[in-house]
Amino acid sequence: MAQSYIENARAIREAMDFAGATLSEENALVCVHLYRPWSVGVTYKVNEYLTYGKNSVGDPQLYKVVQEHTSQADWTPDIVPALFTAIGLDEEGYPVWSQPTGAHDAYNRGDIVDYNGVLYESLIDGNVYSPDTYPAGWTEYSV
């Protein structure tokens, strides 16, 4: 007997959870849509990834659990750093530069990134190059 759509969807979700758990931080950032969004009443385990809110380029913000707990409404990832670490952000909250995979995640004019410990602002839209590769597309940014 053929599986129902709901059974198939559950099996696919299970496979996505398994695949997501095996990725490095760098690859997890590329595959951020694999991860479930944070919600209340969930028991989170150490090193588990989840999403909450949006990052500066409009993608879901990825977090890694650093302390096992059951989530509460007032323990959101953005306000309880004792439970979560934002992935892809430096200590000041700027996104760490990562190689765009296409136009959908390219940096745009005004985007600020941390590249090798230095903040840069993109001078162009559709910027898929690092500050080293195409210096004319970036300027150092100071706070």
Element layout with pairings:
Layout: H1 5-21, H2 25-30, E1 43-44, E2 49-54, E3 60-65, E4 69-70, E5 84-86, E6 112-115, E7 118-122, E8 138-140
Antiparallel strand pairs: 1-4, 2-3, 3-5, 6-7, 7-8
**Total of domains:** 2
**CATH fold annotation of the largest domain:** Seminal Fluid Protein  PDC-109 (Domain B)
Low-pLDDT sequence parts: none
- Overall CATH class of the largest domain: Mainly Beta
Question: Compute the gyration radius: what is it?
Answer: 18 Å
Major sheet strand order: 2-3-5
In percent, how much strand structure appears in the residues? 15-25%
Structural class: alpha+beta
| Main sheet attributes: strand count, strand direction, barrel closure | 3 strands, antiparallel
Mean pLDDT score, rounded? 89
Architecture (CATH level 2) name of the largest domain: Ribbon
The tally of beta strands, per DSSP, is 8
Q: What share of the residues lie within helices?
A: 10-25%
CATH H-level name of the largest domain... which superfamily? Carbohydrate-binding module superfamily 5/12
Helix tally equals 2
Element pattern in H and E: HHEEEEEEEE
Tell the overall outline. Answer: globular
Characterization of the model:
The chain is of the alpha+beta class. The protein has two domains: 5-86, Carbohydrate-binding module superfamily 5/12 (Seminal Fluid Protein  PDC-109 (Domain B), Ribbon), CATH 2.10.10.20; 103-140, no CATH class. The chain contains two helices and eight strands. The chain is globular, with a radius of gyration of 18 Å. The model has no long low-confidence stretch (mean pLDDT 89). This is Chitin-binding type-3 domain-containing protein. Pfam families: CBM_5_12. InterPro entries: CBM5/12 (IPR003610), CBM_sf_5/12 (IPR036573). Keywords: Hydrolase.
